[in-house]
Write a structure and sequence with these properties.
single chain; 475 residues; mainly beta; four-stranded antiparallel sheet; 2 helices
């Protein structure tokens, strides 16, 4: 087992000082993705295949701001590595926008945005990777800095995954980063300021755990939330099993210095979301695995989602995880080979009843679909479940082959009415241009009345090449 703690990091890389006084903290940190502090979540849309100033696959992120009527694509911020105040320069293959996360890192009352560019070359090291912090403000996002990479010599494709939360229980946010190489998961500690030194951090190798992760694939996806109900965030970590491309998923407690010795393994999948489905104060975990059992033993015909309920010690072992496929009673549709059910998952309270609801993408079912299931005091229920496609009445657009509608989903309150709105991406729309849809949340679920859709051109991203707009969605 190998673990690198803060002291070793000091010797190995740039000294991670924690001597700067933290910035003045807002009384209440902003909710993630509320970049302008207006009480409404904004949507960050990654297009890592976007061409920027003639550089193919340099990558871009569009942020569409919320309003009293939901997302307004006419009010957006385009962010590339050529944008004023953003670190580095757009180069071929940077893949800026491959990962996205948000938190009020400097505690000024405005959420900040983290953007991964795992293809960035750093100091002559090809695909070393980088992560940019873009600062929120009253007028929205502007300016940024590079997040320190404490283990630069021993990882590559830094920014393959990123998440933020209070992982060590000190009351301040940390940033968790995924990469490949020896030390696939790293934490960067605050304080986070616009000019001061970063704090320390620690990182670990998953190559020697009881279910070893492949260092070649690395840590590919991260999500976080307060699973224990104790006021700190646990981290859900996705990778591949050594020697195969099968999924491995575990829950990490960042309070433990040698966290790789204390992993709690979860049902295996490639994406996840964290939220309180049953309202008991413990966040629950939805793990998506879109693959068939012939490709991944943990998969299912047509794909599946497994809901693991949270408890005071992490997963509640007294409750059997809830496995959902399109063959589950009450779930619309039919489980068929290649549907990709579980390709995108998100949790949020759509109907305002106090329970987190689940949106599940099936990106390769025909042209793609999204199914919504509801939370309740007894857990996730299939009662009232509904599936949406581009052929659903009121949903803009027309189904086309390989659209991958449902590739990613988010459930965020873009209007400030305390009900989450459903956003869905189809990164394959129009031969790889990509597009995003938004359906408002109501007391009876998402409504297609007033549903909107927009593509990369509407938010400043050219359609040269295949930008893959919506490959990642913030939230």
């Amino acid at each position: 087992m190998r673990i690198r703690a803060t002291a070793a990091l000091v010797a190995a890389t740039l000294t991670p000082l924690a001597l700067s006084a933290p910035a003045a903290h807002a009384a209440t940190p902003a909710t993630p993705y509320d970049f302008n502090g207006d009480g409404r979540a904004d949507l960050a849309i990654g297009a890592p295949g976007a061409t920027v100033s003639g550089k193919s696959k340099a990558g871009a992120v569009s942020v569409v701001y919320g309003s009293s009527t939901g997302l307004k694509s006419s009010t957006y911020k385009l962010i590339t590595q050529n944008s004023t105040g953003i670190p580095d320069t757009a180069e071929t293959g940077d893949a800026f926008g491959s990962s996205i996360a948000s938190a009020d890192l400097n505690r000024d009352g405005y959420a900040d945005l983290l953007i991964g560019a795992p293809g960035e070359d750093v100091d002559g090291d090809t695909n070393d990777g980088t992560i940019a912090i873009v600062w929120g403000s009253k007028s929205g996002l502007s300016g940024g800095r590079t997040l320190v990479n404490h283990n630069q010599r021993e990882n590559d494709r830094y920014g393959l995954a990123v998440a933020a939360g209070d992982f060590d229980g000190d009351g301040r946010d940390e940033v968790a980063t995924g990469s490949n190489g020896m030390f696939g998961l790293n934490f960067v500690s605050g304080p986070f300021t616009k000019t001061g030194d970063f704090g320390g951090g620690n990182g670990g190798s998953f190559e020697y755990t009881s279910r070893p992760y492949s260092s070649s694939y690395g840590i590919e996806y991260l999500s976080s939330g307060d699973v224990t109900g104790a006021g700190f965030d646990s981290l859900v970590v996705h990778g591949r099993a050594t020697g195969t491309d099968d999924a491995v998923t575990s829950l990490v407690d960042g309070r433990i210095g040698n966290f790789v010795d204390w992993l709690q393994y979860l049902p295996s999948g490639y994406v996840s979301a964290v939220g309180d489905i049953d309202g008991d104060g413990h966040a629950d975990i939805a793990v998506g695995n879109h693959r068939e059992t012939s490709a991944d033993p943990s998969g299912a015909l047509g794909g599946k989602v497994t809901v693991v309920y949270g408890g005071s010690d992490g997963p509640d072992t007294s409750r059997t995880p809830r496995v959902l496929t399109q063959a589950t009673a009450g779930v619309p549709g039919t489980a068929e080979k290649g549907d990709g059910f579980g390709s995108g998952v998100s949790l949020g309270d759509i109907n305002g009843d106090g329970y987190a609801d689940l949106a599940v993408g099936a990106a390769t079912e025909s042209t793609g679909s999204v199914t919504v299931l509801y939370g309740s005091a007894s857990g996730l229920t299939t009662k009232g479940a509904k599936t949406y496609t581009q052929n659903t009445a009121g949903v803009p657009g027309t189904e086309e082959k390989a659209d991958h509608f449902g590739g990613r989903t988010t459930l965020l309150d873009h209007s400030g009415d305390r009900r989450a709105d459903l956003s869905v991406s189809a990164p394959g729309e129009n031969a790889g241009d990509g597009a995003v849809w938004s359906l408002r949340g109501t007391t009876t679920g998402p409504t297609t009345t007033g549903a909107t859709s927009f593509g990369p051109s509407a938010t400043g991203i050219p359609t040269t090449g295949s930008p893959g707009y919506g490959t990642t969605l913030g939230g």
